[in-house]
Design brief:
Helices cover 36% and strands 31% of the residues. By secondary structure, the protein is of the alpha+beta class. The protein has one domain: RelE-like (YaeB-like fold, 2-Layer Sandwich). It has a five-stranded mixed β-sheet with strand order 1-5-4-3-2. Helix 1 packs antiparallel against helix 2. The longest helix is centred in the middle third of the chain and has 21 residues. The protein starts with a strand and ends in a 12-residue tail after the last strand.
Length: 100
């Protein structure tokens, strides 16, 4: 089975930058390591099992790891996963102005 290409969309990338900045306030090394591990885990699972996440709404799926949830879309034709958001759900999506 061919691995799916993972594309981190601009908003998810911004959310990762914000997360890295927040963690770096305490420990820059821990920040880099945590974000790299988080992204690596999402990529590892979704490139091989893109439909493993739960359906959230419509064609948007969600997959969680270490307290963070990736919201994503799968394109079977393109063999691609687009990660739309990566957030900690302790703050509601509506409070983050995220709508699907």
């Amino acid at each position: 089975m061919e691995a799916y290409k993972i594309k981190i969309m601009p908003q998810a990338d911004k959310e990762l930058e914000d997360l890295a900045y927040f963690i770096a306030l305490d420990s820059p090394q821990a920040s880099r390591r945590f974000v790299a591990d988080l992204v690596g885990a999402f990529i590892k699972i979704l490139e091989s099992f893109p439909e493993s996440g739960l359906v959230y709404k419509g064609d948007v799926r969600q997959f969680s790891h270490q307290g963070y949830t990736a919201f994503y879309r799968v394109s079977a034709l393109k063999k691609q996963v687009e990660i739309l958001h990566i957030v900690n759900l302790t703050k509601l999506l509506s409070a983050r102005n995220i709508k699907f």
